[in-house]
Amino acid sequence: MNTPTTLATLAKTIRSKNAGTDKITFDIIFREREAYDLVRRSGSLTRETVCQVLNIDPARLTDFVEYDPGLAIKFTILRLRPSGSAGDGDIFGAQQYAPFLDLEIDLSAG
């Protein structure tokens, strides 16, 4: 029986930041290919799970890339309002990654 592990346990870096005034981009970067491949094979981090974790409509997810040379998974979402506009709660988009820290990775998959 596998003990559940989280994305934060496997990734070197989990971050979010502005990608222009209307987008936020997320980077999940790994130190080792083994951890990167494990997350990819697990199916725990996909276009669908990103939308579920962030509770967003799939139409807001503009990009989802598994970047093998950089051992990274990158994705970008459209903001609901421009960065810095009235009602924007995170001007720099730097606090949006937190829900991914505790994302459980299925170690038995793949």
Topology:
Blueprint: E1 5-6, H1 7-10, E2 13-18, E3 23-29, H2 33-42, H3 47-54, E4 61-67, E5 72-78, E6 104-105
Antiparallel strand pairs: 1-6, 2-3, 3-5, 4-5
Describe the structure.
The chain has 110 residues and is α+β, with helices and mostly antiparallel strands. The chain has one domain. It is 20% helix and 28% strand. The protein is built from three helices and six strands; from the N terminus they run E-H-E-E-H-H-E-E-E. The strands form two sheets. A four-stranded antiparallel β-sheet has the order 2-3-5-4, covered by helices on one side. A two-stranded antiparallel ribbon has the order 1-6. Strand 4 and strand 5 form a beta hairpin. The longest helix has 10 residues. It is elongated and about 45 Å long. The mean pLDDT is 93.
Summarize the structure.
The chain has helices at 7-10, 33-42, 47-54, and strands at 5-6, 13-18, 23-29, 61-67, 72-78, 104-105. The chain contains 3 helices and 6 strands.
